[in-house]
Amino acid sequence: MSQIHFEIVTPEKVAYQDKIDALTLDTKDGEITILPNHMPLVSVLRPGEMRIKKGNEEIFMAVSGGFVEVQPDSKVIIIADAAERAEDINELKAEEARARAQDILARKATGEEVADAEAALAHALAQLKTARRRKKRNI
Predict the structure, then answer these.
(1) Among 61, 53, 51, 54, which residue's Cα sits nearest to residue 87?
(2) What topology does CATH give the domain 4-86?
(3) Mean per-residue pLDDT for 18-36?
């Protein structure tokens, strides 16, 4: 069975790199699943949860925006602002970041502060969704 050569990079590190069977993620046009031999494409990622399927294992990651490129020969590269595996997410810190961002938005901030708060809120919500899904699966 053919596999996808997958890599996700952030400004700080290579967050994940391996051969996988499938990848599901949120793009600006909606959720997509990429399988081996997928048609080439480039798309903008929305902040959200990404699911990686490798054999019988499912790996969940929170991604806070970026780009995905599907290349010929089943190669997928994601360049993301941030990406974390579910088990590496500190749920308490994510909850605090969500609350801070919501406070900034509630006080009717303007300009760049709003854009930063909206991005922080989207990232925190993606982290919380991913961390909570992992918790439910382990119960």
Answers:
(1) 61
(2) ATP Synthase; domain 1 (2.60.15)
(3) 95
